[in-house]
Amino acid sequence: MVSGKAIRKTQVSRARFDPTAVAEALKFLFNPSHVGTLSWGYKVLRISANETIPLPALSHREIRKDIYLEYVTFCDQESATHISRGSFVFS
What we know:
Blueprint (H helix, E strand, L loop, with lengths): L18 H11 L5 E12 L5 E9 L3 H15 L6 H4 L3
Antiparallel strand pairs: 1-2
């Protein structure tokens, strides 16, 4: 400021999760052996203020704890990083 130059605002972004770990978790979670779609019902997912996507209702084929334990075992076998149990919880 003393030199008369304008101060530039720097762009800062933070990632809470590793994008690769999240992609692998979603691929594992939505595998047909873990969840199945129902023939009735859907949930509307809001992507932005102007855009929504209807998603089919899902049914879990196993209890959540067992799915997570299988996920951790899978990640250990693949030497991949896994997300925590609290972040993996889904409804």
